[in-house]
Write a structure and sequence with these properties.
Number of helices: 9
Distance between the termini: 16 Å
Organism: marine metagenome
Pfam family, one: GST_N
CATH class of the largest domain: Mainly Alpha
Structural class: alpha+beta
Order of helices and strands: EHEHEEHHHHHHH
Helix content: 55-70%
Strand content: 5-15%
Largest sheet: 4 strands, mixed
Protein name: GST N-terminal domain-containing protein
Number of strands: 4
Number of domains: 2
Length: about 210
């Protein structure tokens, strides 16, 4: 327990990833539940921590980190050694963990944000039905391509212990289904196993709590 960790960001799957990692690692942290598009990310205090004015943002003592994937990997690598989580040791395992993490962020999450912007936030970013349809089709193709490999997860990518890559992949698959991308059964089952973990449920409840604590 460090007592010096602060996580900024609420009501966001990207902030939720960091919270899930914190709960898996049983770390105490202060919570600053600011939201996107609320004006809260534009304050001088937050901008000093993250000039990009985006959530999530992690403070660990005098160290500041943004981007949800970087936050999850940092927390696992820094605090996971004596915890019941998977930490890749061999170059092959490290490469595989990176592969799944980059796949989740670049091939899925980044594309899903096109759907979010132009379908669910169209009043801000404008409608773009062709782009939305293309994004759904692309994500569907990518998920179908990895579904046979995900079917072998027992119960997670690296076996019985959850990894940083699992947090990124399972939350992104859930994000995809909520944005009209159909998941194969193997992906739904994998997602459901991961999101049934007590640490995820605790993190989700806190992510949706707008009280500062």
């Amino acid at each position: 327990m460090t007592g010096s960790i602060v996580l900024w960001g609420a009501y966001s799957v990207r902030a939720l990833r960091g919270q899930w990692a914190l709960h898996e690692l049983q770390l105490e942290y202060a919570y600053r539940p600011i939201q996107s598009r609320s004006g809260e990310t534009l304050t001088r205090e937050f901008t000093e921590h993250n000039p990009k004015q985006k959530i999530p943002c992690l403070l660990d003592g005098d160290f500041t980190l943004t981007e949800s994937a970087a936050i999850v990997h940092y927390l696992f690598n820094t605090y996971g050694e004596d915890k019941d989580v998977f930490l890749p040791k061999s170059p092959a395992d490290k490469g595989r963990a990176d592969e799944w993490s980059y796949f989740a962020m670049m091939e899925l999450d980044a594309v899903l944000y096109t759907i979010r912007r132009h379908k669910f936030l169209s009043e801000i970013y404008g409608e773009a039905p062709v782009a939305v349809a293309g994004a759904v089709e692309y994500c569907q193709k990518q998920i179908v391509a990895v579904a046979p490999t995900i079917a072998k997860a027992e119960p997670y990518i690296f076996g019985d212990k959850i990894s940083a890559a699992d947090i990124l992949l399972s939350t992104t698959l859930d994000f995809a289904e909520r944005y009209d991308v159909e998941l194969p059964q193997s992906c739904r089952s994998y997602r459901d196993r991961a999101l049934a973990r007590p640490a995820f449920l605790a993190a989700k409840a806190r992510n949706e709590d707008l009280n500062v604590n």
